[in-house]
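Study both lines:
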Amino acid sequence: MSTYSSSEWAERAFCKKCGTHLFYHLHHPSTYYVPVALFDNGNPGKLSRQIYVDSKPAYYNFVEKTPMLTKEDILNLFK
């Protein structure tokens, strides 16, 4: 695994061998965002929010009703 600081408030991690994105880590509050594809289909996880929804592909449409944060919403969290 390899990490790098992608901004003053976060870092990203990737697999050194294949480049797979492993997580996005916000420093304060310490929160990890992990791609859903890393989990088995049997995982009973539940979505808590969607971020950067204004940049999502049109084919991303989740059934769960969650808070949907835009890029501006995310950036405002760090002001």
